[in-house]
Amino acid sequence: MKLANNTLGHLFIKQAEELKNKNAIGWIDYDQVRFYSFKEYKNIVESLSLALMKKGIIKQDKVCLLSQTRKEWNFLDLSTLCSGAISTPIYHTYLPE
Questions:
Q1: Distance between CA 1 and CA 14 in Å, rounded?
Q2: Does residue 57 contact residue 65 with C-beta atoms inside 8 Å?
Q3: Is 29 within 8 Å of 70 (Cβ atoms)?
Q4: Alpha helix (H) residue ranges in the chain
């Protein structure tokens, strides 16, 4: 994936390539800590980014993410940035009751 050298997406890809076998992101699953390596993390982000572009998302489009804090939010946030779009988060706590 080719990105401008001064974007957050580029910095993520560069870091992931340098640290590919190290733990990148962790979460708790049934009282057990699990991790994705940077290589796995990068593959997920690239796949989602390509899917966004295939759906017609282009540079400078705004993509809204509505989610609780979770690893999938992070995947989509970075995927949006890697596609050249602008991530616009809406946290679930902003919704009316």
A1: 11
A2: no
A3: no
A4: 8-18, 38-54, 71-82
Half-sphere exposure of 23 (CA within 13 A, CB side): 6
- CA dist 57 and 13 (Å) reads 19
Q: Strand, helix or coil at 62? A: strand
Which of 9-41 are b and which e, b meaning 16 or more Cβ less than 10 Å from the residue's Cβ? bbebbeebeeeeeeebeeeeeeeeeeebbbebb
Helices (H) and strands (E) in the chain, counts: 3, 4
pLDDT in tens, 20-79: 999 999 999 999 999 999 999 999 999 999 999 999 999 999 999 988 888 999 999 999
